[in-house]
Amino acid sequence: MAHNATTRLVAAHLVLVAVATALVLGFVYWRTGGVIDTEQRAVVEAELRGLADDYRQGGLPALAAAVERRLGRPTGRDAVYLLTDPRGARIAGNLAAWPPGVVPGGGWVTLDLYRLDDADRPTTISAVSVRLGRGERLLVGRDVAARAAFDATLVRALGWGLAAMALMALGTGWLLSRLILRRIDGIAGTAQAIMGGALDRRIALSGSGDEFDRLAATLNAMLERISALVGDLRMVTDSLSHDLRSPLGRLGRHLDAALDAAADAETRRARILSARAEADAVLAMASALLEISRIEAGIAAEQFEAVDLAVLARDVGDLYAAPAEEQGVTLEVSAGDALTVAGHPQLLAQALSNLLDNAIRHAPPGTAVRLGAEIDGGAPVLSVADRGPGIPEDARARVRQRFVRLDPARGGEGAGLGLALVDAVARLHGARLGLDDNAPGLRATIRFPRARPAGIAPAGQLKAGP
Amino acid sequence: MPRRILVVEDDPETQAYIARGLAQAGYAVEATGSGREGLYLATGGGFDALVLDRMLPDLDGLSLLKSARAAGVTQPAILLTAMGAIDERVKGLRAGADDYLVKPFSFSELEARLEAVLRRPPDPRTEPETVLTCGDLVLDLIARTAERGGRRIELQPREFQMLDYLMRRQGRVVTRTMLLEGIWDYHFDPRTNVIDVHISRLRRKIDAEGERPLIRTLRGSGYMMTAGD
Q1: Are B146 and B206 in contact (CB under 8 A)?
Q2: Are A308 and B173 within 8 A, CB to CB?
Q3: Which residues of chain A are within 8 Å of residue B89 when distances are taken between CB atoms?
Q4: CB-count exposure of residue A339 (10 Å: 0-12, 13-18, 19+)
Q5: Omega before A440 cis (within 30°)?
């Protein structure tokens, strides 16, 4: 797999670099050739005009002399001149005769001719001609074989450049893909190891904080979350089996006792009712678990409505004032103005009722339990504070989990699902369950997301009026 | 003539449990496990109330109820569900259910709720009741006062509501969850018996030394308000 990816990456890189290089070099070639051609033609045309001037000033002899003079120049090796009489017979120049088919004054032509000074091989000439005053003809040109040689040199140079670039592209492509794929291989290797059972393995970070590190960190966070969930699930399963055993065992014993033929009807009935109570407790636990799962699945979120937390606190407070009083505990409710959030009224009431239930149960007689619905730091907060024993700091994270009871001696009271439900309800609302020291006691808070000012239109809409 | 109840429940054990219990309570019961058959029977008429399971193999309880309501069936209906109260309750009531019970439920809960939905709403042409009585206890709904044997009883607003609720259902079982729903509008099961505390405080106020207790506790099911024996 990795090999295929390397090959593909390198090939793609190579093709891209080659095409880009070829485009650049092609442009260089085209521009260079074009400039040379244009300049050469300008020079030749200037020469032709100069020679025509010589003819006008000094007649045919002066022109012939000028042509011979130019042919003698060492720089004139590529130059081609021909001066003929009106019939085409040579007067001066390095061509034998007027080339057939060339009309004097007919513009640029390209000819394959034999030069007098280099008669071994034909040469390609680019030339322009003119008809002089008394019918004589003058042709000036340049041997373009030299130009072709230059072209060949240029193409060769460009070819080498292209080859060098391709080689470099091959190298850099391979390096780049190795760099990238090595990191991916690392991630894949870790994933393989995790699949193989090493659930605690994590992807190594290079420490550079680059995209791969960020990817690895995200994947590691995901793995942590999954492993926490798996751990949670395992704990729930273990706890469920454990917590089911005791009541089901008692239930069995009650039923066995009820079967005792020696017992009178009243005793039997009492035992059956005890069995019934155990069954109810198990059912209540199963219902609570089911409810927590469904809350966690977010199913209730579609039934959100505007809930006034102040009203909620007063109502739930009203329900619990009497039970608190029976325990010798004062329930103080501090809920002022309307404090509206989007939420599920039943679930919020249930969560608050669980918190109050805990607080009242643990508050020493003669103390107060405070229930508040207030704005704190811009966020709506429900709070329940008691003066009981509180929760040790190291246990505060744990008690949110299902089946966690702080005091195993209190085994009879609740299944350890109360705070787990509160936590699930808080998370459903995007809120956070806080468990803090009330010095002494516990202060439980449900902190909702910061409220958006209700009833105020966005700025854009306010301006939109006429 | 006994009142006829249609029970649509696909689980044979639950169906038998409900049918047997209702028959013992004096109802005439017709039971089926099929939603389609249930709809056919319900629209055929002749029933005083419907007890429908939420989940059925062919036509689920919600759809059955919606179709029946659309077909003009107005008899009260109670939906049973194993799916938890939080999200299903609202759907059930929207579909036209009069009450909603989460499985597992105790039979007394179903019986109490069935009785509650079967009670005909008061005829709107008659004057609404302004005074409720139970033995020598008198609740004046206009003046919002309570008296027993000429003795004035001071009640908190919630206590007044509870007494109102119980007195309107004299001689019938009122479960704890019914009270929690009827007075506080909460549809969950509080972990402690808060309702018992409220009832015992109410009792202390209405039953003076030597007076006959008016609110009875029915073990395993709930309470009943009665002046008789």
Answers
A1: yes
A2: no
A3: 346
A4: buried
A5: yes
Question: Quick one: pLDDT at residue A409?
Answer: 46
pLDDT in tens, B164-209: 999 988 888 898 888 998 898 888 877 678 899 999 999 999 998 8
Contacts of B186 in chain A (CB under 8 A): 319, 346, 349-350, 353
Dihedrals φ, ψ of A93, to 5°? 120, 175
Residue of chain A minimizing CA distance to B157: A318
Q: Report, in this order, helix, strand and coil percent for chain B, each rounded to 5.
A: 40, 20, 40
pLDDT tens-digit series, residues A199-256: 888 888 888 888 888 888 999 999 888 888 888 788 778 877 877 888 888 899 999 9
DSSP state string for A128-149:
EEEE-TTS-EEEEEEETHHHHH
Beta pairing partners, B99? B78
Beta strands in A215-329 (DSSP E): 305-308
Beta bridge partners of A433: A446
Interface test with A, best of B80, B160, B197 (most A CBs within 10 A): B197
CA dihedral of A433, A240, B55, B175, whole degrees rounded to 10: -70
What separation in angstroms does the CA of B107 have from each of A438, B24, B103, B146, B221? 44, 11, 11, 34, 9
Q: Given an 8 Å threshold on Cβ–Cβ distance, is B191 in contact with A354?
A: yes
Examine the pLDDT at A126 and tell me if it is beyond 90: no
Helical (H) or strand (E) element with A227: helix A211-259
Total number of residues shown for chain B = 229
Written as one string, the DSSP assignment of A81-103 is EEEE-TT--EEEESBSSPPTTPP
Length of chain A: 466
Quickly count: other Cβ atoms within 10 Å of residue A351's Cβ: 31
A346 with B191: Cβ contact below 8 A: no
Name which of B86, B190, B192 is nearest A344 (Cβ-Cβ). B86
Pair type for strands B151-153 and B173-175: unpaired
Distance CA(A393)–CA(A411), nearest Å, equals 22
CA distance B117 to chain A (A): 23
- Containing B216, the helix (H) or strand (E) segment is strand B215-218
Token couple for A441: 């006691």
Taking the CA atoms of chain A, what radius of gyration do you get in angstroms? 50
CA distance A37 to A147: 9
Give CA–CA dist A165/A397, Å, rounded.
Answer: 61
Taking the Cβ of residue A287 and every Cβ of chain B, the question of whether any pair is shorter than 8 Å is answered with yes
Neighbouring residues of A256: CB distance < 8 A, sequence distance ≥ 6: none
Whether the Cβ atoms of residue A66 and residue A84 lie closer than 8 Å to each other? no
Q: Is the ipTM of this complex over 0.85?
A: no
Q: What is the DSSP string of A301-323?
A: GGG-EEEEHHHHHHHHHHHHHHH
Amino acid at A422: V
B147 Cβ partners below 8 Å, 6+ apart?
B137, B138, B140, B153
Can you give the pTM of this predicted structure? 0.64
